[in-house]
Structures are given as structure tokens and as C-alpha cells.
Amino acid sequence: NNMAVVYHQQGRTEDALECYRKALSIYEATVGDDYTCAETHGNMGILFQLQGRYKEALESHGKALSI
Fold first, then answer.
1. Per residue in 2-61, pLDDT tens?
2. For the packed helices 2-9 and 35-50, what is the interaxial angle rounded to 10 degrees?
3. By C-alpha distance, which of 50, 54, 48, 55 is closest to 40?
4. Considering the entire predicted model, what is its pTM?
């Protein structure tokens, strides 16, 4: 998750999304749905939004809100 934040700050959105996906799979496998998963989904939503990928952004933000 921290690496994804750095990539995001550097404008490397695809690298950031890949790191968020990896982090999310680890979180879901170890702790299940918790605050960390919600935060990661929210961060992914922001990146999707910045890329103009609004459908994916809404899905990610929706997942974050459902946790």
C-alpha cells in the first residue's frame, strides 16, 4: 500500500494500481474486510477517477463504502 502511494505521487498510476491490487489480495486473505481494505479500495477509486475511468472509480468507492 505504501509503495502504491509513492507511485501515485510520481504519476505512475498503473504501477500504483498494481501495488494496490497486490496489497488488497494480501489484506483480504489475511484479515478479511476491514478498514485497510476499505482504504485501499478508496485509493484505487481515486486513481481510476484521475484516469477518467469513472465506472471503475464508482465500483471501487462503492466497495470501500460497503466495508
1. 999 999 999 999 999 999 999 999 998 998 878 999 999 999 999 999 999 999 999 999
2. 20
3. 48
4. 0.90
Residue type, 55: K
Give the torsion through C-alpha atoms of 3, 54, 50, 47, to 10 deg: -10
How crowded is the C-beta side of 47, counted as CA atoms within 13 Å?
A: 25
Which residues neighbour 8 within 8 Å (Cβ) at sequence distance 6 or greater?
16, 43, 46, 47
Dihedral-angle region of residue 41 (phi above 0 means left; psi in -120 to 50 means alpha; beta otherwise): alpha
Using CA atoms, how far apart are residues 1 and 10, in angstroms rounded to an integer?
14
